[in-house]
């Protein structure tokens, strides 16, 4: 796979966030919950991102909260992707009552509004830590990916090589694992990245409205306290801008990765990106010609 500039930028940004998620609590200059005498101070040499109304260091809160955001995003993405692959491919390849039942289940989850369902489930659970939030989001966010994989599987199961494998007596698990699944890798990866974006935004939303445990630091918790203490009305822009920029940068990194995966999947997108050219001829099917290939 040839990486373009957008994918490289996305990978660099995501690697930076992953690094901060690992070492953030260790390199934070202060305890994020520690109160100090500098109340609601703007950014300075002592407090790079300023302080809260209790004198807490906002930079330490942002660094410490990175781990929770990425943990929830990637755990929820893995859970939702695994369910989407199992349900989507099984309902697309199998026939009869089993396929119809799996398709009906995915349709039910698809029409239920995801975020209100997550809020209701998370608010009724006794514990709402990062792992609980991640599992709730993952278990309620797989339906769209399952529908996409089902549609792709329905197309692949009619291909000649799949029919040949079935005719030679290959077991179902081998046909799915070696004939169908490799052709869905890019679609699965794109769905995973999209689910991570949704999970991150959902987790921040839950923290911002106070559904999740506000004692666990993440970017949504910072915004929750900033909103509850009317930071905007007091002109304390430094209280909410760093967390907002972190959310925007992480979303940008994941979106750039998703664009790169889409270009890898679609030849037309690769052509528009300049990695290949579409050569049109009257009476013939359009073909892709690589840069520097024969006939250049």
Automatic annotation (TrEMBL):
It comes from the Bacteria. GO terms for cellular component: plasma membrane. Pfam families: BPD_transp_1, OppC_N. This is Binding-protein-dependent transport systems inner membrane component. Signal peptide: none annotated. It is found in: Cell membrane. The keyword Membrane applies. It comes from Kutzneria albida DSM 43870. It is a multi-pass membrane protein. GO terms for molecular function: dipeptide transmembrane transporter activity. CDD domains: TM_PBP2 (cd06261). Residues 70-258 form the ABC transmembrane type-1 domain. PROSITE patterns: ABC_TM1. Belongs to the binding-protein-dependent transport system permease family. Keywords: Cell membrane, Membrane, Transmembrane, Transmembrane helix, Transport. The chain crosses the membrane at residues 9-28, 69-90, 102-125, 131-149, 184-209, 237-261.
